[in-house]
Amino acid sequence: MGALSLSSESIRFPITETKVVVAIPCFNTEDHIAGVVAKTKKYVDEVIVIDDGSTDMTAEIAVKTGAKVIKHPQNQGYGSALRSCFEAGRSQDTDILVIIDGDGQHNPDEIPQLLSPIMLNEADLVIGSRFIDKKQKMPGYRKFGIGVITFLWNIGSKIKVSDTQSGFRAYNQKMIQAMLISENGMGSSIEILEILRKKNPRISEIPITCLYENNNSHLTTRAIVHGVSVAFSVIKIRFKYAFKKVN
User: Fold this and answer.
1) Helix/strand/coil (H, E, C) string of 37-86?
2) Residue 35's domain is classified under what CATH number?
3) How confident is the model over 101-153, as pLDDT tens digits?
4) What's the number of domains the chain is made of?
5) How far apart are CA 149 and CA 23, in angstroms?
6) Is residue 247 part of a domain?
7) Spatial separation of the C-alpha atoms in residues 147 and 98, rounded to whole Å
8) Domain range for 138
9) Distance between alpha carbon 247 and the CA centroid of its chain, in Å?
10) What's CA 152's distance to the chain center, in Å?
11) pLDDT digits (tens, 9 = 90+) for 182-201
């Protein structure tokens, strides 16, 4: 695992026919999706929004901003949205698939940093980590929860990462083909890493910035419930894949 710190202006890729697609899992993100799509389009060949049963104008806004939209008829969960992301990547014969959240927390201008290790054939998976740059500010309850989840996943693993819950990642074609996930909830981010553990991938982590909504009791409670749920998912998924053969 390596950490890279590069500015988007400093990255110059060799001229290739590499097809890069961004997939954006969304649920009720009408306030942010236009900005995310518009910024993302500058760096990739195609932008695909997975609208997981939104009840607002997310899909309509995404289409107007220039994205292709795959819409779930009802909300099925983050894992289901990620599954559609990988299915879309495979159907498009994608060389590199970037997944970025549609809620405006991630900065699309950091996409070149994620692409660089794969384009240079130095990594199969690149994770945008919030824990490499010590200047990154994060609410304490989030930092603690993500730390516990990451600790549980790293125990006894030869492959270790600093941010198992990052929703900002890039996958090469080999990893895209391997992503046959079954989890529908937030535990899917752990399942992806568990599948990859069996593949012995080259993983790089690069520092990213992340914006958070203002703290309030509702968001704090929701984050704590989410953290406990994912922590149990880590244990369940690790047992599930301990003796499971991944093709």
Assistant:
1) HHHHCCCCCEEEEEEECCCCCHHHHHHHHCCEEEEECCCCCHHHHHHHHH
2) 3.90.550.10
3) 999 999 999 999 999 999 999 999 999 999 887 676 776 767 777 888 888 88
4) 1
5) 25
6) no
7) 24
8) 2-242
9) 22
10) 19
11) 888 767 888 888 888 778 89
Residue 208 maps to a domain: yes
Note the pLDDT tens digit of each residue in 208-231. Answer: 999 876 554 444 455 555 555 666
Please report whether residue 154 resides in a domain.
Answer: yes
Mean of the pLDDT values across residues 90-111?
Answer: 96
What is residue 7's three-state secondary structure? coil
d(CA 81, CA 72): 8
The token duo for 189 is 């981010």
- Does the pLDDT at position 10 exceed 50? no
Q: How far apart are CA 48 and CA 181, in angstroms?
A: 19
Q: Which two tokens stand for residue 4?
A: 């890279």
Residue 213 counted as domain residue:
yes
